[in-house]
Known about the structure:
The complex is a heterodimer.
Chain A: E1 2-6, H1 12-22, E2 26-30, H2 41-46, E3 54-57, E4 60-63, H3 65-75, H4 88-110, H5 113-116, H6 121-144, H7 157-169, H8 186-196, H9 199-208
Parallel strand pairs in A: 1-2
Antiparallel strand pairs in A: 1-3, 3-4
Chain B: E1 2-6, H1 12-21, E2 26-30, H2 41-46, E3 54-57, E4 60-63, H3 65-76, H4 88-110, H5 121-143, H6 157-171, H7 186-196, H8 199-207
Parallel strand pairs in B: 1-2
Antiparallel strand pairs in B: 1-3, 3-4
Helix pairs in contact in B: 1-3, 1-6, 1-8, 4-5, 4-6, 5-7, 6-7
Amino acid sequence: MYVLHYYPDTASLAVRMVLAELGVQHRCELIDREAGMLSSPAYRKMQPLGLIPAMETPDGTMFETAAILLYLADRHPGLAPAVGSPDRGDFLKWLFFTSTNAHTTLLQLFYPERTAGPDCVDHVLAHALPKMKQYLSLLDQAAGANPSWLSQDRPTMLGYYIAMLMHWLGGFGADHPLQINAADYPALFKILVLLEGQHATQAIAEDEGLGPTPFTAPLA
Amino acid sequence: MYRLHGVLDWGSQVIRLTLAELALPFDFHQIDVAAGGLTSPDLLALNPFGRVPVLETPDGPIFETAAILLYLAETHGALAPLPGAPDRAAFLTWFMLVTNTVHPLTMTLLHPERPGGAEVAPAVADETHRQLRRHLALLDTVASTGAWWLSSERPSILSLFLVMLLRWIKAFPAYARHSIRLADYPALQAMAKGLETRPSLVAALHAEGLCGAVYSNPPCETPAEPA
């Protein structure tokens, strides 16, 4: 039995959608963020940096979104190539690319003050935005070949991870300087349409208040 | 047969050490960075991102250091807990933190102009140094728990990756004041000593142009700042 410690519209979303899509038994425990639970000794014992998500597994507590996804891929086949399959290398390449480049740069767009304090925010944003667009273009190119691990026709683990990032990036609004338009990435866009139509996604989107089209038009 | 594209003492170093530890034959192709090797059509065909390392494998070219490492560990069944092992969950957690947080922080300490330009580089470097020390302290506590994949006893793709980052942090910070003292992280320093003296790795380090305490106590090569 997995216990996912989550908070609406945070990185726990990718894990929650994947758990639902896999149909594996799990429980979601809401983190009482307002009460300071992320700094509590109990939470820090699970996640020493106080970040979301953390997940209890039969093998102990783990964290790091992409690590949890890889662990789930090991145990529940279907959404990612298994160890030994010829697609495994490509899958790992783009999963790590997404985690180390796309996700990291996205965090700079949302929390630019974390890089070097409030005085440097404009500089950080000006550098992070073109990088973010370059990374999305590379992911869009990879998705264009419709590979098994980032399919346009059936849900994939990497697709859910990228959809979560696109959900956040789409939330800046049309006249915002950081605005990113999902339709500029046509292969990824097809994946977003597919995934936001999944029953698993729709139930979670409703529960977390993400709207009817959380990936293609998050502000709708 | 694997073919590794890289630059001496860059990220390809940990791939070379991993291949050596697995006793796998490979060709090394040195990229000539000054001659524009990172933007050459040959490299971009392997990695549209124009970065090294890239490893050509029977399953196609793989980039992203951590992806190559995990691919090698899984393909050859060594140097990491495999799916089903009880410590796979913990290993993946710390491996991911090192690749998506500690590695980028390290690169920012070496090149603090990258996140926001030259004007804010000193402030970026100071904050990066603070965050890096926090993460290294955390990793030191994990290494002191005796997990084999973060120990001096035998190498893992995680320990090999992390000691390379320790070397860079100690030897090449943009500002000399940010060079760390490895003694502040005793479990990590012991791990670094264990790996740099391991017979199976010494020859690979030599091929990278490295010998001696290259992980546990490399000299800081950044000139001291004027007082």
